[in-house]
Write a structure and sequence with these properties.
1 helix; 4-stranded antiparallel β-sheet; Methylamine Dehydrogenase, Chain H; homodimer; mainly beta
Chain lengths: 392, 392
C-alpha cells in the first residue's frame, strides 16, 4: 500500500489497471460502483449488472469515514479521505488520475450541480476548499472563521441547486450557503443554526437542508427556497414533554428518508425509529427496533426503509414497510453491517459486512441472498447513479 | 436511409461508427443522450457535458412519436418506432446492435425494473410483447384481447416496481398489471378503468398509475400499493359544475409533474394549466397560459415547470415558478418546439425545435442560451440518466 500522508504537492499517480489484467474495455458506466475498503486504503470497483468485482484501486490513505462523489459522466470518482486527501479515480481504467493532500483532517465533500467543482469540508484546519473537477487545481478557499476570529470544523457539506454548496460550522453553530456562480469568489450567506450542528442532509429535490444538533435538542431546518425566513428550529411536540427524549441525536443523516409527508428518523440511544410528519413535525409513530439505529435508508420506490444498528446489534438489518409502518423483515448479514446501497430502481440492495470481509447482495422483494462479493473490511458502498442525484 | 419496413426477421446490422471517423473511445456514459430525428429515421448521439454531437445512427425507420429507454449501464438504447420496429443501439460505438420488426404499429415501450426485459405496446395487432434486453429474443406475448374476444390498442405502458409492467387498453377501457417475475408467463391483473384510456403516467416513486380518459371526464388512478382497492376515478370538483370543462384531456402525460402535494396538469383545449392537490383532487389554481399546453415538465429540483404548446403557439415556452404558481419567463426557441429534457440535476434544459432543425440548450436559472446543436427535424430528446429512474 502506498502511503501518501506526507505528500504536500499534487501528484499524478498512474497505477496499473487491474481489470482482470487486460486493458480497460469499452463499457457503460451506469452500473458501476465503488466499495470502500477502509483498513486497506483501497476501493473495489463493482459491476452491479453481473454482481461482480472488476478491480481495485489502492493507495488512498486513511479511508475511515471516507465518502465519495461521481462526475456527471459516471466515469470518475472523487474520494474524500479522513486524512484530508482528495483522490480522483478513473473507474474504467481502475487507476488514480490525481491525488492531492488538501487538508489534514477531512470529513467528506460534494460536487457542484454542474459537475465542474469539487468542495471538501475540513476539520483541520477547518473550512471548505473548492477544486476543479477536471484538474483538482484549487479555485477557492472558504475559511470557517466567524466574526469572533474563531475557526470551526465544517460538517454536513452538500451540493444544492443554483450552483450552491451548503454546510455547517460545528463550534460556531452556523449554517452557511455558498453561491459558486463565480467559483473563485464564492458569495456567502450565514445563518445561526443552534448549538453544535454535527451532520446534515438535504432533501432529494434540494430544497430543505436539515442539520442535527449535538449541543441541544431539535434540528435546524433551512428552506433554500426562502432564505429570507432564516433557520427554523424544529422539535417534535413529544420531545417538549420529555426533556430526556433524544429525538434528534441522529448519528448519520445521509439516508434522506423523506417519503411522502413523513421523515423516517433514527432515535439515537433508543431502540426506536421515529416517523414524523413534515408538515407539523409531530411524531406520527414510534417504531420499536431491535437495536440503536444508525442508517435509515429508503428503497428508491419508497415502499421500504432499511435500518442498520450500532453495537452490539450491528449484525442485523430491519426492514420497515412504509405503508403500514411496521417491521416486515429481519436479516442477519454478518458481523459489523456498516452500510447499504440500493440499485437505482430498488430491486437489489448491497450491504457491507466489515468483519466478515464481504458485501452481500439481497433481492429487496424476496429478501433472498443473490450474491456475496469478497471485500477487505468494506465500509461505504457508492453506485454511480448518485451522479444524477442532487445532494449525493 | 435504409428502409426496414419489409424486414420480417431479426437482423443484426452493423453500421460504421460515426464518432468523428475514429474508433469508439473509452468514455463514461452517464452524460450521453439521444435526439430523435423523426423525418430522417435517425438518432443523434449527444454529449451533455460538452454540449456537442458525437454522431448519428441511421436506418431506424418511422420515428414519428418514437420513444426509447436505456439499459442500466447506460450504454444501450432501445428505440420504439411507430412502424413496430424495436432497435437496440450501442451509444459507444454509434451503431445498431440489433433490429427487429416486432409489430406493425407501435407506440412505445418500457424496460423492466431489473433491466433484463423490454416490453413494447402495440396498436396493430395490439398487445404487449416482451423481449430479452440482451438478445431481443421474444420471451412473452400478452394479447390485449378481452373476454368479449375483441382486441384493443395498448397505450401508456410503463415499468413499475416489483418487476411489473402496467398498461392501458384503449377500446376495452381497462388497465392491466403484468407481473414479470416469470417473464415467460406473465401474471395479469385487470381493472376496469373507464372509457378509452389514451395515455398514462406513473409517479416518480412508482406507486400511482394515472390514465387519461378520452371517452369521458376524469382520470383513472390505480394505487399499485393497494391493488385490492381497484381503480379510483378522479374528477376535480370544479369539473363537476362545468360539464364542458376539459380538465383531463391531457395530450401527453409523460411529464410526471407531481411536485410536493401538487399535480401540474395541462388543460387541453384551454390556455391554462391546472394545479391540483393530490390529497383531495381539488383545483388549487388555474394558471393562464399563452397557448394550449402540450408537455408540462418539472425541473428536477421542482422549483420550475416548463411548458410547450400546440399550434399555433408551438414556437414558445413558458416557465412557471412552483413556489408562487406564476409565470416567471417566456421564451421563443423557434418554430415547432416539440420536446424538452433536463440535465439530471436541472441546471440545463435541452429543447428540440423541429422546423428550425436545431436543439437549443438553456441555462434554467438565467434562461440564457448556452448552445445550439444542428439536428434534422428533431423531436424527442432522451438523456441516459433515465436509466436510473422508475417509469422512464
Amino acid at each position: 500500500m502506498i502511503r501518501m500522508k506526507k505528500l504536500a504537492l499534487a501528484l499524478t499517480l498512474t497505477l496499473l489497471p487491474v481489470l482482470g489484467g487486460h486493458a480497460a474495455e469499452l463499457r457503460g458506466t451506469g452500473d458501476l460502483g465503488l466499495v470502500v475498503e477502509r483498513a486497506a486504503g483501497s476501493v473495489q470497483i463493482v459491476d452491479t449488472t453481473h454482481r461482480t468485482s472488476l478491480g481495485r484501486v489502492q493507495g488512498l490513505g486513511d479511508l475511515s469515514h471516507a465518502s465519495l462523489v461521481y462526475s456527471p459522466d459516471e466515469r470518475y470518482a472523487y474520494v474524500f479521505g479522513r486524512d484530508g486527501a482528495l483522490t480522483k479515480i478513473d473507474l474504467l481504467e481502475a487507476r488514480i488520475v490525481k491525488r492531492i493532500e488538501q487538508a489534514h483532517n477531512s470529513v467528506g465533500g460534494a460536487i457542484s450541480q454542474d459537475g465542474r467543482w469539487i468542495a471538501t469540508s475540513n476539520y483541520e484546519p477547518g473550512g471548505v476548499r473548492v477544486f476543479s473537477a477536471d484538474t483538482l487545481d484549487k479555485v477557492a478557499d472558504i475559511p470557517s472563521v466567524t466574526a469572533d476570529g474563531k475557526a470551526s470544523k465544517v460538517v454536513g457539506l452538500v451540493d444544492a441547486p443554483g450552483q450552491r454548496f451548503v454546510f455547517s460550522l460545528f463550534e460556531a453553530g452556523e449554517i452557511w450557503v455558498a453561491d459558486l456562480h463565480d467559483p473563485k469568489s464564492p458569495k456567502l450567506q450565514k445563518f445561526k443554526a443552534g448549538k453544535e450542528p454535527y451532520d446534515a442532509l438535504i432533501s432529494p429535490e434540494g430544497r430543505y437542508y436539515i442539520a442535527g444538533l449535538f449541543g441541544e435538542e431539535g434540528v435546524a431546518l433551512l428552506d433554500l427556497w426562502n432564505l429570507d425566513s432564516g433557520i427554523k428550529r424544529v422539535l417534535p411536540e413529544h420531545a417538549k414533554d420529555d426533556p430526556k427524549f433524544p429525538v434528534f441525536k441522529m448519528p448519520h443523516l445521509e439516508g434522506r428518508a423523506l417519503i411522502g409527508d413523513y421523515w423516517f428518523l433514527p432515535a439515537v440511544g433508543r431502540h426506536e425509529m421515529l416517523v414524523i410528519d413534515r408538515r407539523d413535525w409531530k411524531v406520527v409513530k414510534k417504531i420499536p427496533l431491535d437495536g440503536q439505529p444508525v442508517f435509515v435508508i429508503p428503497r428508491p420506490d419508497e415502499r421500504q426503509v432499511w435500518i442498520n444498528f450500532a453495537l452490539p446489534d450491528n449484525n442485523k438489518l430491519e426492514i420497515i414497510d412504509t405503508r403500514d409502518l411496521s417491521v416486515v423483515k429481519r436479516l442477519n448479514p454478518g458481523q459489523a453491517v456498516l452500510h447499504m446501497e440500493f440499485t437505482p430502481k430498488g430491486d437489489e440492495v448491497w450491504v457491507s459486512v466489515r468483519d466478515d470481509d464481504r458485501v452481500m447482495v439481497y433481492d429487496t422483494e424476496t429478501f433472498a441472498e443473490l450474491a456475496r462479493i469478497k471485500a477487505d473490511k468494506p465500509s461505504g458502498i457508492f453506485f454511480t447513479a448518485r451522479a444524477h442525484r442532487l445532494g449525493l
